[in-house]
Design a protein that fits this description.
Elements: E1 7-12, E2 24-28, E3 34-41, E4 44-45, H1 48-51, E5 59-66, H2 67-81, E6 87-88, H3 91-113, H4 117-128, H5 131-134, H6 137-150, H7 152-159, H8 166-175, E7 179-182, E8 187-190, E9 196-199, H9 206-213, H10 217-233, H11 240-246
Antiparallel strand pairs: 1-5, 1-6, 2-3, 3-4, 3-5, 7-8, 8-9
Length: 256
């Protein structure tokens, strides 16, 4: 952490990276005396050419103030320069946040690995679409893990949805082929009799259409029928003891 008696390192938001700032330039300190400012990223200096990038990274600027002095002049400094979102760079806080994020990613990946086949497809469909219905289970899990590494919070949110959630119900019904996408994606129907459930408007997502439909009186009846069909599709989970008891015992013959 930056202590009060050390010079402050400021972190500039990525959108300010393309400012015309030389890697090293002269300025003045609070007393008006000449001093050298240097752009740094961790222990590496940022050269001017690297600032102009399609994916800019935050810029770090070492200034002559201490933390106390910066906090005293912070408002004036930011308003005068037009730098919004500038903050004191705190490596320890950043490292702690990184560890917390890595831990969360590992926790979410463990949940993904532990999903059964049906739930893997359900989560896959909600994360990256109907392609998950065609992918094999290991590929779906691989894609989910990749997505969790990129955006762990969105994947964790979907994993945490209650099974009674309408979107989870709809996705599970799709995975189990109780309902299907039909008419080139313009409708959703029951798979066994082609009965129309809901029309999907142009540009509308299938799950969004079902989510809205389930709120109507007709949709509530469809949801009830889907739930009943789902009970026949999803076998009751049995304990290991029950499975052992149901297995026929092998007959043994005695040798004479």
């Amino acid at each position: 952490m930056t202590t009060n008696n050390k010079k402050v390192i400021l972190e500039f938001p990525a959108e300010l990276v393309n400012m015309t700032i030389k890697p090293e330039f002269e300025g003045v300190d609070k007393n008006g005396d000449p001093t050298i400012y240097r752009l740094i990223s961790g222990t590496k200096e940022i050269i001017k050419e690297n600032q102009k990038t399609t994916k800019p990274k935050p810029v770090f600027l070492k200034i002559a103030w201490t933390r106390q002095e910066f906090e005293k002049h912070e408002a004036d400094f930011i308003l005068a320069k037009g730098f919004k979102g500038v903050k004191v760079y705190d490596p320890q806080a950043e490292h702690k946040a990184n560890i917390e994020m890595i831990t969360k990613v590992n926790d979410v990946n463990s949940k993904i690995i532990g999903l059964d086949a049906t739930k893997t497809k359900v989560i896959g469909f909600q994360v990256y679409g109907k392609e998950a219905l065609k992918d094999d289970i290991n590929l779906v899990k691989t894609k989910l893990i990749a997505k969790a590494t990129e955006d762990v919070n969105s994947v964790d949110k979907i994993l945490s949805l209650n099974e009674n959630n309408d979107r989870v119900l709809a996705t599970t019904a799709l995975v189990l082929n109780i309902i299907k996408e039909a008419d080139a994606g313009n409708s959703v129907k029951f798979s066994d009799n082609d009965e129309l459930i809901v029309a999907v408007r142009k540009g509308e997502r299938l799950l969004d259409a079902l989510d809205e439909h389930f709120k109507t009186n007709e949709g509530k009846e469809h949801k009830k029928r889907i739930g009943l069909k789902m009970q026949d599709k999803i076998p009751t989970e049995k304990t290991v003891e029950e499975e052992v008891l149901e297995k026929p015992t092998a007959k043994t013959t005695s040798k004479k």
